[in-house]
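Page 42, continued from yesterday. The earlier attempt failed because a stray header line got pasted into the input along with the sequence. Redoing it now with the clean sequence only.
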Amino acid sequence: MARMARGAIRIAVAIESLKTPGAVGWWVIAGDLPTDYMSSAGIQHPREAMRAVARRWRGAASVMARGEQLPGYAIGPAEEGTRLAPLLESRAKLLAEWADDDSFWPETH
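This time it went through. Structure tokens are written below.
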């Protein structure tokens, strides 16, 4: 499992595949933000995973701000969506900034 930390947010980003030992099976994010996960299918690098989570959260925040909820995906209780939307958007923005920050990914440049 790879671990990254910036400020108060600690992130665990890779879970080994049970089907293919040595390969990433799932990407997970946890810390001072919502815990979330997604399959590694099509996402090979933690930087890509961080961007994918940021996109997912931005989309969810937009829907939540309208008082709605994405089918099959929830962050917090539905009745709290409009209150939680700006918080989720701010976390999504932070993740996107980190994904775009080359100094955070020294092996990629």
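Notes: Residues 3-101 form one domain.
Reminder to self: strip header lines before submitting.
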